Amino acid sequence: MTSNFFKLLRFSIDPSQPVPDDIKAEEWPMLFRIAKEQNLQGVIFYGMKRLPEHCLPDRQFRMKWFAISRQIATLNTKVNVNAVKVSEIFRQKGLRTCILKGQGNALIYPDPLMRTPGDIDIWAEGGYKKVMKTVGKMAEGHKRCYHHTDFPPYGGTEIELHYRPQFMNNLISNGRLQEYFNKNADTQFANIVMLPDGAGKIAVPTTAFNRIYQMAHISNHFFHEGIGLKQLLDYYFVLRQGFTAEEQKADRLTLKRCGLYKMSTAVMYVMQKVFCLEDKYLIVEADERLGKFLLNEIMLAGNFGFYDKRLDKYRGSQIKKNIQRLVRDARFMMLFPGESLWEPVFRLYHFFWRKTARY
Question: Based on the domain organization, do 337 and 196 belong to the same domain?
Answer without folding.
Answer: no
